[in-house]
């Protein structure tokens, strides 16, 4: 069986950036053969947060924090070169913004991904990653994936990078409604809301950017649904993007965070938590405030802002879903019925643990080194890198585009140190065959 130098799980922004870094890291006159890298993506084609591509949504991060610029400003994969190739550079300049629409940035990412079509397999979901022992030590990894027809494929690799993104965080009260189409996470918003064209009363649970964007999207729909915006917080707080605070997203701040003790890291995460979580753009907050102000002027209550409320119970009823809400200000409980409920409740970043469960005996507590590589026991030779799952050790920027370009260069460097390549390009053969 063919042995890859690297298999990447997922082909979102993080692994696209890595594919770019690997290509650009090969010197033109080098006698070394390029790394043999293959990426496996479960979606049938590239799309980035497809169910949150709302018409008026914009990026919260500067376009300069794209897939390549901070690592290599002269790269052909920069957002500016994308604009040049699409013949829109001058028009974009005239917009006078650092924040393109989410639709345009998705198109940029798709443009970059398309240039690696020969190195990515779409429509396959990873089933498991198994150790491949040789001589009493683990030399390779066996990656098993399943395609849309149910066929299982097996591939061997010397090293692995996991870039699967976050999984929807579902509050405990809603976990029994996984199969109920009336309750859905914001990551499924556009597809799910299309199934409720006649919904008249909806609830949004959450206080972040997604909750705010969905509220304004529902407000602008011609059906004029009534929407309750439910959150524990007293107010919607804006993200702090002032210059000194934004320094925490600089690449060199990653070194600082990683060098701190566990308690110091926790303090840093707590101090700057609102720069990334439950923190919509100020302009979006102002739009929401104006919606509620105009309601007061008109003397009509279409939407409600249920601040300082928490969901304590969820019940399916004949004509919808009933929430039990605890008013924390007045210490009273009410019940409300909704046609649909949107959970804008964020994401979990631990999916790699389930994917790598068969390797757990070699990986201990899933700790990573500075180069995002999981620490392993002696005799386990593959390097396994995590992208977007190292916030606790590397800082708040880890789940964002902020360090994506720099991180891809660091992982590339660590890979080059880990991979011993034969200049002639010969490969070993595995004693086992694919299923």
TrEMBL record:
What keywords appear on the UniProt entry? FAD, Flavoprotein, NADP, Oxidoreductase
Q: Which cofactor does it need?
A: FAD
- Describe which pathway this protein belongs to, using the record's wording: Siderophore biosynthesis
Q: Which domain of life is it from?
A: Bacteria
**Record family assignment:** Belongs to the lysine N(6)-hydroxylase/L-ornithine N(5)-oxygenase family.
**Name this protein carries in UniProt:** Lysine N(6)-hydroxylase/L-ornithine N(5)-oxygenase family protein
* UniProt organism field: Roseateles amylovorans
């Amino acid at each position: 069986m063919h042995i890859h130098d690297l298999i990447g799980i997922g082909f979102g922004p993080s692994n696209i950036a890595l594919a770019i870094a690997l290509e650009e890291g090969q010197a033109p006159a080098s006698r070394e053969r390029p790394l043999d890298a293959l990426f496996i993506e479960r979606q049938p084609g590239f799309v980035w947060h497809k169910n949150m591509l709302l018409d008026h949504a914009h990026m919260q991060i500067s376009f300069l924090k794209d897939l390549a610029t901070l690592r290599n400003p002269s790269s052909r994969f920069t957002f500016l070169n994308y604009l040049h190739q699409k013949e829109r550079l001058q028009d974009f300049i005239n917009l006078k913004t650092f924040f393109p629409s989410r639709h345009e940035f998705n198109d940029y990412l798709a443009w970059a991904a398309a240039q690696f079509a020969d190195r990515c397999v779409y429509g396959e979901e990873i089933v498991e990653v198994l150790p491949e022992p040789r001589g009493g030590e683990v030399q390779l990894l066996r990656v098993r994936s399943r395609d849309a027809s149910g066929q299982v494929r097996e591939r061997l690799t010397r090293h692995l990078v996991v870039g699967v993104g976050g999984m929807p965080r579902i509050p405990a009260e809603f976990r029994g409604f996984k199969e109920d189409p009336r309750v859905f996470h914001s990551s499924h918003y556009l597809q799910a809301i299309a199934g409720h064209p006649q919904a008249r009363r909806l609830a949004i649970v959450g206080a972040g950017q997604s909750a705010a964007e969905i509220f304004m999207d529902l407000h602008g729909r011609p059906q004029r649904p009534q929407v309750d915006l439910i959150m524990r917080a007293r107010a919607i707080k804006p993200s702090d993007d002032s210059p000194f605070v934004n320094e925490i997203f600089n690449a060199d701040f990653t070194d600082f965070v990683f060098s701190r003790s566990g308690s110091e890291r926790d303090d840093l995460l707590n101090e700057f938590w609102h720069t990334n979580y439950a923190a919509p753009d100020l302009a979006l907050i102002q739009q929401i405030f104006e919606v509620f102000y105009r309601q007061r002027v008109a003397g009509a209550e279409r939407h409600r802002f249920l601040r300082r409320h928490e969901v304590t119970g969820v019940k399916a009823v004949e004509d919808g879903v009933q929430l039990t809400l605890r008013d924390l200000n007045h210490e009273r409980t009410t019940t409300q019925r909704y046609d649909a409920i949107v959970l804008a409740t964020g994401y979990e970043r631990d999916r790699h643990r389930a994917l790598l469960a068969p390797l757990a005996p070699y990986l201990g507590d899933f700790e990573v080194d500075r180069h995002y590589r999981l620490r392993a026991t002696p005799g386990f030779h593959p390097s396994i890198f995590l992208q977007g799952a190292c916030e606790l050790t590397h800082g708040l920027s880890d789940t964002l585009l902020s360090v994506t370009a720099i991180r891809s260069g660091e992982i590339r460097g660590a890979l080059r140190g880990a991979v011993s390549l034969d200049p002639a390009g010969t490969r070993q053969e595995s004693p086992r065959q694919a299923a």
